Amino acid sequence: MPVWSEQERMIADSAADFFKAHGSTDRIRRRRDLHEHDRETWQSIADQGWIGMLISESEGGLGLDLREALVLMQQTSRFLTIEPLAGAIAAGQALVALPSLRKVKAEAISGTCLVLPAWGTIAQDGGKLSGHSQPLPGLRAADSVLLFDDKSQGMFLVNRSMKGIVMDAAPTIDGGNIGRLVLRDVQAEQIATGASVRNLSRTVKDTRLILEAAELVGIGGEVLGRARAYLETRKQFGVALASLQAVQQRIASVHVQVAAAEALLFEAARAFEGSKQSFAARAAFYRAGQAAHFACREAIQFHGAVGFTDELDVGLYLKRCLAITAAQGGLEAVRSGIAN
After folding, report:
1. Cβ contact 74:213 at 8 Å
2. What are the distances in angstroms from CA 155 to CA 3, 108, 161, 185, 320?
3. Is 198 exposed, middle or buried (0-12, 13-18, 19+ CB in 10 A)?
4. What would the pLDDT profile of 42-101 be if each residue is shown by its tens digit?
5. pLDDT at 1 over 70
6. Which domains, from first to last, does the chain contain?
7. What letter would DSSP give residue 310?
8. What is the pLDDT of residue 240?
9. Helix ranges, the chain (H)
10. What is the model's pLDDT at position 28?
11. pLDDT range class, residue 265, cuts 50, 70, 90
């Protein structure tokens, strides 16, 4: 498994302390039926500087590297953070690249404006935009959306308050939401076009994907730890279940899957800004998704009948895992993207 630097360990510890103080899984249980954005928690996240962690200090961010962002995302997922942090961090890559978005960038980093990236097909007619985006996780939370039209290589910034904007969102099983941004004769200017937009679109999309891969690795590691702790305390016929060889072999299988996914995740980070960036991001997400699904299923089985109950947190991790992978069209869709 990758060895964390002192800086990475400090980030992980800081994130763990933060989410313990902000309710951990109990917060998700309280809010999951509301399907509303927790603005108070989001502002606290922004106050930590995490939204701008990949943005240089001279631009108002923390100036950290991708590895450190992956460490953060692994930790946030251990506490079932459903805020769209991966999307917001990724959007910052585009905001910092365009001087015309300097004000929006500052608002995004400060937490006063939640900006998410989306992709879709947009038709322009007399300066008005019509069309819709692909499904966007956390849509209801977004104040503004950076909309990429890969077909025309155009980029637009739209605000939820604009006339003709419809946020067609539905709740997800993890307590979040997902939906399409619909534009009906929206008066908005194209802020960039051409090859620069194509490159930005690729960077933002790949960054979000690898950050979500880190979330999945974190989920896998968390449920593995919970299952192992349970098996060490649960006894049958006077012996701990963890002492049984058959159980040990299954735990070892989960460990291997999660460790391999984590190793690939950090290898993918090394490929960023190279020709294999998109391939690496997709491969990391696919492998992490497989490992997280496997770990959650096994953890439920390890807990026996109680594993299927809502009272056990393992089920919450499975739901979060399913929501993350479903937003990408499922693991098979991601694998097809790798092949293509």
Report:
1. no
2. 39, 18, 19, 16, 30
3. middle
4. 999 999 999 999 999 999 999 999 999 999 999 999 999 999 999 999 999 999 999 999
5. no
6. 197-339 (1.20.140.10)
7. T
8. 85
9. 6-21, 24-31, 39-47, 66-78, 85-95, 102-110, 195-233, 245-270, 277-302, 314-326, 331-339
10. 83
11. very high
**Amino acid (1-letter code) at residue 125:** D
Contacts of 124 by beta carbon, 8 Å cutoff, 6+ apart: 152, 154, 190
- Looking up tokens 């999660």 gives 258
> Parallel, antiparallel, or unpaired: how do β-strands 136-137 and 177-187 relate?
antiparallel
Q: What is the pLDDT of residues 319-338, one digit of tens each?
A: 999 999 999 999 999 999 88
pTM confidence score: 0.95
Neighbours of 183 (CB within 10 A): 24
**β-strands 115-125, 144-149 pairing:** parallel
Contact 119, 163 (CB under 8 A): no
- On whether the CB atoms of residues 30 and 87 are closer than 8 A, the answer is no
Q: What percent of the chain has pLDDT over 90?
A: 76
3-state secondary structure of 22: coil
What pLDDT does residue 36 have? Answer: 77
In DSSP notation, 254-299 reads HHHHHHHHHHHHHHHHHTTTSTTHHHHHHHHHHHHHHHHHHHHHHH
Please report the pLDDT score of residue 179 as a whole number.
Answer: 95
Residues 6+ apart with CB under 8 A from 252: none
Position 339, amino acid: A
Phi, psi of 32 (to 5 degrees): -65, -25
What DSSP character marks residue 241? G
